[in-house]
Amino acid sequence: AVMLLGGALGALGALGWINFNRRDQSLMARLSRALNRQEVTLLYQPVVNVRDGKIVGAEALVRWQSNGDFVPPDVFTAIAEQKGMAGRISRYVFDRMIDEMAETLRLHEGFRITINIVAADLSDPKFFAALEDGLHHAGLTPHQIGIELTERSTADSTAAIEGIARLRARGHVVYIDDFGTGYSSLAYLGQLNVNVLKMDRAFTRTVGTDAVTVSIVPQIIDVAIKHNLDIVVEGIETEAQAEYFRNLPVPVMGQGWYYGKPVPAAKLIKLLEQQDGIVSSKRGPRKGLH
Ligand code: C2E
Ligand code: MG
Ligand code: MG
Ligand code: MG
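A: This is the predicted complex of the input protein with magnesium ion.
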């Protein structure tokens, strides 16, 4: 009886797996069509200097509605990664970002946009070729394009370390994303040789609430300073959090709902124009021209 039950459970489990796999398969087929039809879109979330709140960059975040339903990006990018399709998303996002933002990047020398990629891109010649072509055609320099990789995706991988070195040799700025949630030790950062550490919002969330976790925040900041990395604090949602990071002895960048949610390209451009003191032409004469 026990064996029968075990067998039945096994069969059910296998059936569940097949269904799950089929569901993923059809999701990827729909994603593939959506990419071909340019139905996948991007939003941009401002990254600010927390000391003065000025926008210094933005992160491109992918958005996809399948049959009217919003599919969370972390979900479909993870499945795409398993199915070997993530590289297509990375190249699509990069190309579309260049289409939408090249002009703005040319106008704002100090402004930088980051894209999220996966570990497999780091050893994919097609990815590197796409970066080079895109920048060349848009007349842009690589230092305005940041490449975000999660700490998890780089863990203990020589291929990742080499890929990061290659990106940096080409002049890109490399970010380690969601830092603090992966498996790697703080010491591993030295080997990775990235430019910017993005502290995961799990730590930001506890600022001002949980004394134990708050004590980790200064440690992460210290380690970033020790390795000569810039810092982006993710998920700043409240004034109290903003104040905490504003008052750190080192200037850090911040990203979060407190400063701005992800917005379409046109809206981001408007925000930058407002910051420059240029009023959108629809609303009257441009300041600075008169
Ligand atoms: P991520 O790269 O860490 O992106 C930051 C996520 O945090 C975004 O979620 C953003 O909307 C969200 N966020 C920003 N500020 C706040 C805040 O103050 N509070 C809260 N609760 N959330 C905030 P999103 O856009 O849903 O993306 C989720 C994840 O999906 C990303 O995490 C990234 O891992 C992945 N992803 C998004 N776009 C892409 C892409 O183009 N390619 C790849 N490979 N992955 C992507
Ligand atoms: Mg990211
Ligand atoms: Mg992140
Ligand atoms: Mg994340």
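Residues 281-290 have pLDDT under 50 and may be disordered. The longest strand covers residues 55-66.
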